[in-house]
Amino acid sequence: MKTIPVTCAIIFHRGKVLAAKRSESMDLPGKWEFPGGKIEGGESPEECLIREIQEELAVRIKIIQALSPVEFSYTPGKIIRLIPFTATLESFDFHLLEHEKIVWLGENDLFSVDWAAADLPIVHEIQQKWVKLVEQNKPID
């Protein structure tokens, strides 16, 4: 069984979290996810995530903390190990280079979008820890 390490960013801003809709050119088109991508050789998960967010959304982030990893299989023989990190924005000029759309979701909106299956356990963890995560991910001005 092949395990593929993938990172994702739970980006907080003004008490909301960013979700990105996968474009028609991506696997799982139309599903929502926390943006990120595959770890390349020699990269730490944190380095990967910073690079991926720059490549996908053209913004810079500051990683705050890791959440619980999730293992999920979309296809037989291949497992995705999704490694989530909470983050805040260091730049705000979004350019959607891969995704179709982004939205900011509050606590009561978390399940208003059609999440990719691998992201659902992370959504549940965020919901359970919402107040603490919002407080920990406030930018320091």
Describe the 3D structure:
The protein is globular and about 40 Å long. With 141 residues, it is α+β, with helices and mostly antiparallel strands. It has a single domain (2-136), classed as Nucleoside Triphosphate Pyrophosphohydrolase, CATH 3.90.79. It has helices at 45-57, 120-128, 130-136; strands at 2-13, 16-22, 32-33, 36-38, 61-66, 70-75, 78-89, 99-105. Strands 1, 2, 3, 4, 5, 6, 7 and 8 form an 8-stranded mixed sheet that branches. The protein has 3 helices and 8 strands; from the N terminus they run E-E-E-E-H-E-E-E-E-H-H. A hairpin with a 2-residue loop joins strand 6 and strand 7 (78-89). It is 21% helix and 39% strand. The longest helix has 13 residues, at 45-57.
User: In the CATH hierarchy, what is the architecture at level 2?
Assistant: Alpha-Beta Complex
Helix content: 10-25%
Radius of gyration: 14 Å
CATH superfamily: Nucleoside Triphosphate Pyrophosphohydrolase
The low-confidence parts are none
Give the total of beta strands: 8
Strand content: 35-45%
What is the CATH fold-level name?
Nucleoside Triphosphate Pyrophosphohydrolase
How many helices? The count is: 3
Whole-number average pLDDT? 95
Report how far the terminal alpha carbons are from each other: 46 Å
CATH class call? Alpha Beta
Question: What class, by secondary structure content?
Answer: alpha+beta
Order of helices and strands: EEEEHEEEEHH
Number of domains: 1
- Biggest β-sheet: count, sense, barrel? 8 strands, mixed
- The rough form would be described as globular
Family: Belongs to the Nudix hydrolase family.
EC number: 3.6.1.55
Cofactor: Mg(2+)
GO biological process, one term: DNA repair
